[in-house]
């Protein structure tokens, strides 16, 4: 017997790719040999480098024999097609899919197929006019969406093509069209209930198996007044807010405080944002150093207060978290899960400061039980200042970070998913 794991774009590392690769391992462990399907060709061997997960032994079927990064919305509309071909050829018992556009596959449930939908975020909130006006999550409100699709010609691509074709492929309601409905955080579950009337089962994404959870950490006294951020250079990460609003105030409180932003920057949009953040930081009176890929950030000096580190290797990021930093800052608002980055920082024993929204607050910081939260810049500065100066508070939150991430390891994700799937077979 076999299974299908359907993801629209396997070709770059991200939270969705991590979840689907982990799901493939879980289904394989159950004896349902997984077949991976997607829109564009990809190299499964890269998942070992990205996550420490080997999916290269699994059969792969994609709609297109090439790999391109464009047409991200298009991949959502047609990701179901490769699965249809497989359902007529193999004895497929289960389909794991992390997108809502699988209406053409629902009819196979009458033939014994079990559908597991994993909701990263309900797409209806973004596209349905009913959810506009105050949520901050709809088209026209969400900065992540507007950064990509808010200006010409991409706004035409969004409104003229994607949203018009979407009803053909969007399933009606996951609780009617799927056998098991999962989601990434308690926060996303509450949004899903607003849309569908029921709450999915929460199954947090795992920490990748190539990210170790430290058994012991370097003491507070051996670290400096360093704050670390991690994530691609993109508008929704709010690095511009950090360098214009937060850091100038933090430096007034703690004059020798420093910030390193480790971020991926490979596209023109991302590199433009790097330049914008650097320019805004300088205008705010901060000394900034941009460290490009291929260079090495060997040591911090008294001259610079903000470092923008582009495409850093994992070893360099870990070195900063393990040996130099006292706090990890996450500035994104309403992030559905909270990002792999926050969990990775917690695995290194770093206390975290996150916005009081989204999955980072509900499921990683546990509403303040595990990490510190903020709603405005003053609260963020106070939280960071506490971690930079109070050794007792730092040690307490460091221990809590490590305790929390031990509950979301790769092995626990695999075992829990397998347990849930067995109940519907």
CATH class type of the largest domain:
Alpha Beta
- How many distinct helices? 17
Query: Distance between the terminal alpha carbons, to the nearest Å?
Result: 12 Å
Q: What is the residue-averaged pLDDT?
A: 91
- How does CATH name the architecture of the largest domain? 3-Layer(aba) Sandwich
Integer tally of domains:
2
From the structure provided, what is the oligomeric state, counting identical versus distinct chains?
single chain
Would you give the CATH topology of the largest domain? Rossmann fold
Question: What is the total tally of β strands?
Answer: 14
Structural class: alpha/beta
> How would you characterize the largest beta sheet?
7 strands, parallel
Please state how the strands of the largest beta sheet are arranged side by side: 3-2-1-4-5-6-7
In CATH, the homologous superfamily of the largest domain goes by the name Glycogen Phosphorylase B
Instruction: Quote the beta fraction.
Output: 15-25%
Fold topology:
Layout: E1 2-6, H1 15-29, E2 33-40, H2 46-51, E3 59-64, H3 72-78, H4 81-87, E4 92-97, E5 114-119, H5 123-127, H6 143-149, H7 154-169, H8 174-177, E6 180-183, H9 186-196, E7 201-202, E8 226-230, H10 239-253, E9 258-263, H11 268-283, E10 288-291, E11 306-310, H12 314-324, E12 327-330, H13 339-347, E13 352-355, H14 358-364, E14 372-374, H15 377-389, H16 391-405, H17 410-422
Parallel strand pairs: 1-2, 1-4, 2-3, 4-5, 5-6, 6-7, 8-9, 8-12, 9-11, 10-11, 12-13, 13-14
Helix pairs in contact: 1-17, 3-7, 10-11, 10-15, 13-16
């Amino acid at each position: 017997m076999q299974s299908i794991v359907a993801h629209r774009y396997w070709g770059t590392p991200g939270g969705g790719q991590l979840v689907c690769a982990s799901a493939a391992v879980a289904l394989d462990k159950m004896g349902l040999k997984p077949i991976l399907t997607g829109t564009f060709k990809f190299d499964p061997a890269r998942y070992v480098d990205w996550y420490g997960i080997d999916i290269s032994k699994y059969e792969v079927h994609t709609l297109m024999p090439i790999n391109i990064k464009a047409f991200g919305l298009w991949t959502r509309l047609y990701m179901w097609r490769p699965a249809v071909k497989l359902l007529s050829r193999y004895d497929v018992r289960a389909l794991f899919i992390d997108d809502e556009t699988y209406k053409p596959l629902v009819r196979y449930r009458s033939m014994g197929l079990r559908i597991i939908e994993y909701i990263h975020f309900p797409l209806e909130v973004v596209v349905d006019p009913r959810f506009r006006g105050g949520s901050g999550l709809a088209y026209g409100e969400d900065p992540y969406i507007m950064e990509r699709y808010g200006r010409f010609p991409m706004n035409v691509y969004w409104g003229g093509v994607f949203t018009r074709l979407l009803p053909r492929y969007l399933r009606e309601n996951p609780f009617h069209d799927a056998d098991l409905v999962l989601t990434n955080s308690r926060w996303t579950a509450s949004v899903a209930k607003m849309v569908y009337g029921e709450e999915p089962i929460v199954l947090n994404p795992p920490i990748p198996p190539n990210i170790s959870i430290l058994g012991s950490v370097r003491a507070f006294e051996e670290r400096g007044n360093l704050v670390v951020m991690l994530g691609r250079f993109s508008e929704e990460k709010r690095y511009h807010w950090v360098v214009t609003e937060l850091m100038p105030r933090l430096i007034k409180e703690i004059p020798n405080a420093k910030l390193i932003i480790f971020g991926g920057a490979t596209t023109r949009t991302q590199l433009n944002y790097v330049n914008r953040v650097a320019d805004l930081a300088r205008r705010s009176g901060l000394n900034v150093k941009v460290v490009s890929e291929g260079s090495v950030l060997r040591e911090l000096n008294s001259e610079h207060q903000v470092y923008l580190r582009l495409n850093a290797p994992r070893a360099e990021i870990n070195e900063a978290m393990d040996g130099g930093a006292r706090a990890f800052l996450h500035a994104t608002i309403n992030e559905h899960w909270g990002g792999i980055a926050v969990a990775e920082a917690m695995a290194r024993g770093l206390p975290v400061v996150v916005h009081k929204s989204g999955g980072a607050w509900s499921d990683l910081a546990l509403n303040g039980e595990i990490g510190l939260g903020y709603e405005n810049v003053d609260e963020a500065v106070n939280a960071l200042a506490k971690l930079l100066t109070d050794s007792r508070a730092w040690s307490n939150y460091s221990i809590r970070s490590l305790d929390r991430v031990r509950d979301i390891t790769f092995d626990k994700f695999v075992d829990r998913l397998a347990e849930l799937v067995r109940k519907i077979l």
